[in-house]
Hints:
Structural class: mainly alpha
Subcellular location: Cell membrane
Domain Major facilitator superfamily (MFS) profile: 1-167
Transmembrane segments: 16-38, 50-68, 135-160, 191-213, 225-247, 254-271, 277-301, 313-332, 344-363
Keywords: Cell membrane, Membrane, Transmembrane, Transmembrane helix, Transport
Protein name: MFS family permease
Number of strands: 0
Amino acid sequence: MQRVALDWAVLEASGSAVLVGIATMLQFGPLLVFGLLGGAVVDRFSRRSLLVLTQGIASALSVVLGILHLSGAATLPVLLVASAARGLLTVVDNPARHAIVGDLVGRDLMPAAISLNASVFQLGRLIGPVLSGAAIASIGAGWSFVANGVACALMVIGLLRSRPDEMFEEPRSASDDGIGQGLATVRAIPLVGWTIMLVGIVSVSALNLPVLLTSLARESPGTGALDYGLFTTLCAVGALIGAVLLAHRPFVSFTRVVGAAAVLGVVQTLLALPDQLVTAACLVGVGFFGQTFLTSSNAFVQRSVPSATRGRVMALYLMLLLGGQALGGPLAGLVVEHLGLRQAIAASGLAALTAALATAMVVRSGRGPVVSEDTGPRSAVER
């Protein structure tokens, strides 16, 4: 709700789509620049305490922004400063929210918990923009900020009510070498490195649907805006189905990660076919296999690394995931403009498929050292 309301508020205050893009950059840019440093902080201190702090600050920022907007005092500089403040919080908040999953449920239940979290996230993608749009139209965008402030406060209450003595936290070490230890962990567990590399490549090549879908909607015979909403909904439905099914079948492996990336590439390549029924089916498939790939890769990486460096490894994972999407969007736009829409869609799918097959071949040939694919209770380092 807040993302939609903030974009709308910036657009109203400035009338500039460029400034809307700048506001988005301010929300995600700090994580790309300082992500590894944030991961080191997450591994040094209690993740529960860090999240209480970051979510508490986020709650206060949202409520204050909501009050300012409702009172008419939320000028463009205020909105941009709020965007930058949220972006700085994500440097610690994002890796902490990923890494704390294992602390809360333990290594065995981690894949199911990550899938459950993904299903809730997809529900938010479906419901949040609708609620925010209704709020903007009826009572004003400021109430979306207030609603998000309440949501963050509820997370703080939940964290405070959790019992640290029942969590699966491992002792923090003050003697490691900060950021370097996270990179050393990735080098020591080759399949984790290959997985994170594949996530980065697929993010650049295939996870750029907003650019492709807007162009596809513009070419469709119906109403462009309505078609874009329908396309996005079909993807979200597929992603929700994938997340729910993975929550019931939580086993993860490197093979599943690579397989999901390969099938995603095939389905996205077929999306280039000019047939409405094929387009609808492929959009659901892209959502399903895209979510399967991201959830499986997330769970595989987290279960394969020791808790002491999980925050730094997940920070690197998120940097490549978000950085890849940031790079992939403009790249996809250039391909659409110079080669055509259908060619751009096919190229994005083929690139993901090629990356998956190449990764599998390199690992199987022995040039990429392999550890066991089994993600049992012990970490790959411990095995």
